[in-house]
C-alpha cells in the first residue's frame, strides 16, 4: 500500500462524491476491438490534454471480473487491461473470478491482502459480494464497483454502471412508437429477458413495461434466458412455437441475441421486427445489413470498464476530474442508454464488442 494519503484525506475520499451521468465526465470512450471486424478503431480512450492525463504517483489497481465466457464480459476485461496499459503510473493486478461467487470471493480477498491502492470489482452477484467490498473499504482500499451493484453503498467508493432501467425504456419507446406508426391494434409483443435473478434484468423489464404503457401497450409473452447463445436459441424457439404471430420482440442481450436470430431463421419467422440490447458489433452488422428482423439495439457498453480504471487511478492518486469543479471523483456514474438504428449505426460501430 502506498502512503500518499493521510488517514483523514483517505476517509474523506472514501465517503465523498456526487452522482452524475458519465457522458460528460471522461475524456472519451473505448472499444475492445483492435482491427476485429475492420472497424479501424484502436480500441482505447483518446486522452485529452490536461492534468488527468499527466503521470502521477505510481499506484496498483486490483481488478476482478467474471470469467470471459460471454462477449460482453470478455470486452469488460479487455477494456480494463488495455486502459491500465495506457498509464505509466499504473500497475494492473487482476485475479481470476472463477465460475461463481464462491470462487470470486476468496480470489478477491487474496487480492485485498496484497493491499492494492484501489480495487475495481465487477462481481458475479453484487449482493453476495457486498461483504467483500466492505472488507476492502474497511482496510482503506477504495472500491470502484463496476456494473453489478453492491447492496450497501458503504461497500464502494464509486459505482459506475449502465442504465438498465433506461435500457428498457429506450427499447420500449422504439417498439411503442413503431407499432403506433403501423396502426397495430392489440399487437403481440414478446420479451426475451436475461437472468431473472439479477436486479439488472428486473430493471430492464420494468423500464420496458413502463415505456410501453405510455403507448397503451403491454408485453404479451416473456421468458428469461441466461445471457448465452444456447439459452437465447432455446427460449426463442419455445416462444415462437407458442406464439403463431408476433409484431415485435425485444431481446435484452446481444450475445444471447445470436441464438435468438438462429431460432428465428430455423423457424422461418420474419413477420416482426426485433430490438436488441447492449450494442455488440455482431448486432450492429446485422442492423446495417438489414437482412434479419433485428433493426435496432439499445446500448449497454462495456467501455464502462475503461472508465472504471481511469476513475480508480484518479481516486488512488487523490486527484479530481479535469472537467468538474468538485475536488473528488463522483460517487455514482450512470451511463446513458442510446438507441442504434441503421441511420446512426456507423457512428457506434467503433464501440462495438464481438459476441
H/E element order: HEEHEHEHEEHEHEHEHEHEHEEH
- Helix-and-strand structural type: alpha/beta
The percentage helix is 25-40%
**Radius of gyration from the alpha-carbon trace, in angstroms:** 21 Å
How many structural units, i.e. domains?
2
Gap from first CA to last CA:
37 Å
CATH C-level label of the largest domain = Alpha Beta
**What CATH architecture label of the largest domain applies?**
3-Layer(aba) Sandwich
What is the tally of beta strands?
A: 13
The overall average pLDDT, rounded, is 88
Describe this structure in words.
This protein is of the alpha/beta class and about 350 residues long. The protein has 2 domains: about 190 residues, Response regulator (Rossmann fold), CATH 3.40.50.2300; about 140 residues, Rossmann fold (3-Layer(aba) Sandwich), CATH 3.40.50. About 35% of the residues lie in helices and about 15% in strands. It has a 7-stranded parallel beta sheet with strand order 1-12-6-5-4-2-3. The protein is elongated. The relative contact order is 0.18.
Features:
355 residues; six-stranded mixed beta sheet; Rossmann fold; alpha/beta; elongated; seven-stranded parallel beta sheet
SSE diagram, text form:
Blueprint: H1 7-15, E1 19-21, E2 59-65, H2 71-85, E3 90-96, H3 101-113, E4 118-121, H4 130-138, E5 143-146, E6 158-162, H5 164-181, E7 189-193, H6 199-213, E8 221-224, H7 229-242, E9 248-251, H8 254-267, E10 273-278, H9 281-289, E11 294-299, H10 304-316, E12 332-335, E13 339-341, H11 345-348
Parallel strand pairs: 1-12, 2-3, 2-4, 4-5, 5-6, 6-12, 7-8, 7-9, 9-10, 10-11
Antiparallel strand pairs: 11-13
